[in-house]
Amino acid sequence: MSLELIDLSLTASDASAPLFAPLSLVVAPGETVCLMGPSGIGKSSLLAHIGGHLPRGFTASGDVRLDGESVTQLPAERRGIGMLFQQAQLFPHLSVGDNLAFGLSAQVKGKVARHAAVEAALEQAGLAGMADRDPATLSGGQRTRVALMRTLLARPRAVLIDEPFAALDAELRAEIRSFTLQHLQAERIPCLMVSHDPDDGAAAARRIALG
Amino acid sequence: MRLAGAILTLVIGAPVLLGAALTLATGFGWQPGLGRVALGWEGFTEALAAPGILTSLRLTLVTGIGAALLSLAASIPLARWLVTRQSASRWLTPLLAVPHAALAIGLAFLIAPSGWAARLVSPWATGWDLPPQIVTLGDPWGLSLILGLMLKEVPFLTLMTLVAAAQRPVAEQMAAGRALGYAPGRVWVRIVWPQLYPALRLPVLIVLAFSLSVVDMALILGPSNPPTLAVRILRLYGAPDPAQAVPASALAVILLAVMGASAALWMVGERAVARLGKALIRTGHRGVSRRNWSGAGLIGAGGTLALGSLGALILWSLASFWRFPDALPADLTFKRWASADWAGPALTSLTLALVSTVLALILAMLWLESEDRSGKRLPLGALIVLPLLLPQIGFLQGLTTGFLWLGLPPGPVAVTWAELLFVFPYVMIALAGPWRALDRAHLASAASLGAGPTRRLLRIKLPMLLGPICAAAAIGVAVSVAQYLAVLLPGAGRVQALATEAVALASGADRRLAAILALMQAALPWVGFALALAVPAWWHRNRRGLRGGVA
Q1: Which end of chain A is more exposed for a tag (fewer CB within 10 A), N or C?
Q2: How far is A68 from chain B (nearest CA, A)?
């Protein structure tokens, strides 16, 4: 599986020039590419566009392809592109386990199998036995790990990461980052990350400066 | 602080409790005015033995719970449609401001067998040369009543949903759900809306209580024989024999029990729905992406009914002669407007609205300012909730009796006081948020410049809060103009306001005058809201930081 961007560019509605030069890029399965650039250049908007979440008010050109198939015209939910947000965006009214169950692909059928899949994901994230916890009681690192597991359980064809480690303190950041990238690599999922943290860039397989 | 609490309890709390207590006592046969002081259950047995009582009970339950349930269900896709279109939600306010009676009369003129809707499609599409023998108004299941209630309650619940949504990262949660592959409608229903529901619980219970006990709409749109419990109670109170007040009050107590049981049932239902929702969430089914047709459809249907009702009122108010099945009156004339027999009730309603709103504003400021000065919250939340959750018919007649004992005969003063019981809670709700959110740094800097508490109130707080105060006043006027029972019962026929006159004429005695009265009843709140937008904008025209103060 690969994620391909072809001549992608974005223009804000009140601007005449595009936010950045047209971007072409192929992210191989299991590869992590980090887009670097100053804040305000439109890194988050670019990710939102690839994921299908761009609000009205932007004009976009170029194409997004997964395994050679264009997904630009598909709504967000049919692209199969998972996203890790700056805030983990766990659903506050659901338990940790139900957050994961919501993410778990519907192809896993049957109560027992689904329950087991959720438990296994919790264990992988080092959160065994925490299925009934309120997400609000988790630490920042735990929340990020749950968000990653929730995204992976949906079996995405690619994953986009929007500075999800920025809110963590420095020590934890390295640990959660390597945890996240290792999992994506193990599952052979192409991953595009945006950040202005040089350490994020160093951890990625490739760095591309946006400008 | 103590004084403020005492005043509020005396002015708002005491009348509600006095009225409710007297209703309860009367229900058990206590009528000292008639020399009867022995208590007993006869009132209840008499009330429950009345013919058709079970039909009335069924009607009350079907229309009350049905209207609340359907309104809530309709508000879900509607709020999803409006949450990304904040400018469109502005159009909810005019519909919210229309009094129930005015809307009911407009709807009746639209959907009656001889109404405008039938005229528009007759005879070319239907072949009707005479009004058809179809029961629309007053249908035995109360469907017209449910429709009328929904037209008022769907905008209210939708607005409450939007207010709750504004405090949460809705767009981000929607994106998170869609990134996991869920259709947007499903993310809204299973993820976003359940997070908003806790903020909707009290509004929903108020809607439920209101729908179960509504009188004016039920008189116009509901079946008349047998009618809903609330209308039945009003009829018994109006009977020539004062002894009928006993079964009437007993029935009011029964209605309160029905309301309590319905609220309990609702909360059990909430749990069941929450459990079902969790089970569905665990299945992981993603749903099908499609456009939000139900949201757009509801906007269209609601808008058509609202505009159609308004149109029917305007046409009837101007019609000289309007034969069925003509789509429009033969010719239009201002003759009926010029005869000005609507001016008296309009002036009465306006005066009642201004006086009760000013009093309510003073009470609300007294409450909020005394909290500021003492640094503590007044524990008087019941004063806001009680008048809205109790059935009006359950304490207003008792209150009228109580006023009489205390030397306050039925008339304008009693009506103003009764209206205040309903105007104050809404004014307080509208004003409390902005008042408490006022940046305390402004007050601290005023104090450091030597301004005492009174000067801070008059020179800093009130001018800065001009927008919210005007908005609260507009809400107060709208609530006051909409009051029906609070005019009818404590007025005892001596006070003729728009609501009581319009409802009295709505059954068809004089359609033209009824239309004019209903239009005036709708116009007063609209003028109020327009002024609430215009006055602060003009006052603060050179103060950019204070513009847009109306919530």
Answers
A1: C
A2: 20
Amino acid identity of residue A69, one-letter, is E
Question: How far, in Å, CA of B118 to CA of A199, rounded?
Answer: 73
Chain-chain contact of A92 with B195 (C-beta, under 8 angstroms): yes
Tell me if A85 and B285 make a contact (CB, 8 A cut-off): no
Nearest CA in chain B to A81: B179
Q: Which residues contact B286 (CB under 8 A, 6 or more apart)?
A: A77, A106, B181, B182, B183, B186
Contact of B179 with chain A, judged by CB distance below 8 Å, is answered with: yes
pLDDT digits (tens, 9 = 90+) for B314-369: 999 999 888 888 889 988 989 889 988 899 999 999 999 999 999 999 999 999 99
| C-beta atoms of A81 and B182 within 8 A | no
Same domain, B10 and B63: no
**On the CB side of B50, how many CA atoms lie within 13 Å of its CA?**
25
B84: containing domain: 41-333
Task: Render pLDDT for B108-151 as a digit per residue (tens, 0 to 9).
Answer: 999 999 899 999 988 888 888 888 888 888 899 999 999 999 99
Whether B392 is covered by a domain: the verdict is yes
Specify the amino acid at residue A11: T
| Chain B nearest C-alpha distance from A189 (Å) | 15
**Cβ neighbours for B228, distance < 8 A, ≥ 6 positions apart:** B56, B59, B60, B63, B142, B145, B214, B218, B222
The CATH number covering residue B195 comes to 1.10.3720.10
Tell me the whole-structure pTM to 2 decimals.
Answer: 0.91
Do B84 and B17 lie in one domain? The reply is no
